[in-house]
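Two quick folds needed for the group meeting slides. Do the first one here.
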Amino acid sequence: MPDNILFSKDPASDLNKFLAEKKYSKILVLTDTNTAKHCYPVINTIPSHSTFVIESGEAHKNLVSCENIWMKMTEQHLDRHSVLIVLGGGVLGDMGGFCAATYKRGIDFILVPTTLLSQVDASIGGKLGIDFHHFKNHIGVFQTPALTLLYSGFLKTLPEHEVRSGFAEVIKHTLISDENMWQHVKTSDLEHQNWDVLIKHSVDFKAKVVQEDPKEKGLRKILNAGHTIGHAIETYFLTNNRTIMHGEAVAAGLIAEGFIAVERNLLSKASLTEINNYIIKVFGKLQFSALEEKQIAELTTQDKKNKGNKILSVLLTGIGKANWDYEITLSEVERALSFYRTL
């Protein structure tokens, strides 16, 4: 486990210790409208600091919000010896970290993820960025936070749909790395999972992968399972003003990409049925029409993982195993979406 990741039972105390050692010149805490109310009171005893609250949600993960954050940092006279503490979910962590990494060519930032999705995925690995004209994470950088502080107590502040969204990444991590943990996970419903165990499992796995491949040249690509088709679904829904959680899209993507794996004889039909049954039991099904399949499929051509005109995807090679850089076709994507839609 990297020494910049800390599992905490008392986040205020642990933050105070870290900040005392670092002796930053200024501290700015970035929150959104939700975390300002529900999470900031847990850490507000840290040393003298200023705060900045922005609107919550994926719709605000853009350059306009970044400009507001950079302006606040400028108005507060943050220098290169200052720190930005980002208290929020994946959207705020991605964007706040991006703003810190680019402000005065980079200042330290601390991630305090408050959602399950951000704790098991977004806050680990140094990927930062914003959306651009509805393309997810289209503009961004790699930069490691000075500290990522994980406190499962924040999950108690979340509505169920937020926990469910993060659970998709937990499921993904077991499917690509650990069959035994998958068998453990699928014996319980969402409400009865042991989050401390699952968060640690996901963080251990992702951190190990990132350490081996920090810039996603090889092994780290495995973390994109479910995301080639999942991101296309998410982008289509958001572009058409339809509500969708990231985890819902990834869950659908895991099923669709699992279908392609079965078509290529990489995954057994029985394994796919096992995956489908559990995912649909937890997430339900996203609704889109046969006519929309082509439009969603077309969006996979914009995926960041692509190379030239090749659509690249991660495919399961069994439960607990996967490989990356499989070239898939638009026709396969359309068949996979049709399979999901008609389940």
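Then this one, please, same format:
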Amino acid sequence: MPRHADWTDHLYRSLTNEEDARVCKAISDDACREVPGNFLRQLGAQTFTGLGDRLANPKTTLAWLLQAMGAPGLFLALIVPLREAGSLLPQLFIAGYLRQLAVRKWVWVVGSALQAVAVAGYALVAWTLEGTIAGLAIVGLVALFSLARGLCSIASKDVLGKTIPKTRRGQLSGWKSSLSGVMAMGAGAMLLLTGGADGSLHLYTLWLLVAAALWLIASIIYSTIAEFPGETSGGGNAWTHARQRLRLLVDDRPFRDFVTVRALAIGSGLSAPFVVSLAHGELGGGGWWLGVFIIVDGFASMVSAPIWGRLADRSSRTVLRTAMGVTATLLAITIGLTFIELSAVVAQVVYPALFFALGIAHSGVRLGRKTYLVDMAEGDQRTDYVAVSNSVIGVLLLVAGTITGALSLLSLPLALAVFAICALTGMLLGHRLPEVSA
């Protein structure tokens, strides 16, 4: 066996705590032989994109950037729902095309390259534009980024299901989140040390160019995955395919229950901008505090994602329900804070700590639902599940973002209460989900 194979086998076994690197469930014999290398390639590619996501995050970096460029507040309200929903809505139609491809990694490669173009565009806007024009340009680039992200989302789950054993998928996602979190902490520390009180557009431009380079590197790594040809049945007209796949919500109760629970969990991510808004009002909006929150977010993923991932391989249902319960509790605490006048010193501790805890809960929700969705289906059915669930969630994100955004103008605690109640309801309904991890 070549020396590099020995090295990848050893590292794979170390990361997964696996005595036998060839223990495979729900993948072909050919794919089984390539598991160690494919595990590390996907880990590397997704770690780079995970770090890029943190460096160009609309909840933190883009929000700070729009304020620095003097863009109207309307654009701040648009970027988060647009980024999330835009990547999910088209997937029902993309799936019909994807099912015709025997090898699907190239869809991810193209999507990652397009995301690099969009993020480089953010940097160009930061360097050359300001005000309303800058806001419009950023929103347009967010839309491009979001569509490209959708390509990666649907392709990655299919490639993951074809190349990684059933009991190792959660750990791959967990290690990805952890490693990208570690690197994000380092990047955040650099911003903290160099950002100053007010930050600099030149600094943010460099920050975004680095993020764009990360997506390009990831696309190169992902292209080397050893993916064997798979099923290609069920392709055809996108509209016909979309209508047929939507029947899953009527005919497939376990899948319908999963989509319901996932929909109730969206507050774990959408509530973050409200917490950042509260912190912004209490702590100020300079580059120093942006660095702090990026570090906190990265640290939350670093310490929690490997644990969530290992637990998800045992029971992704339990992980999802637990993380939703934690989310509901933390949002209730946040609501309570809005009625308490905190001293400056206490606020400087409480808000980063709260953001850290919410980051842990959100990591659990993401890993739980992703692992559950990949494990509950095989072959082309997985592609349909991913496409339908993501498209439905995309619609709900736009609706939820609009409603809670309007509610926040009246009462921020009321908007947070909606998310808390939804998370609690989802935790309770989660008992209806069948176990799929074993």
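Slide caption for protein two: The chain has a mean pLDDT of 81.
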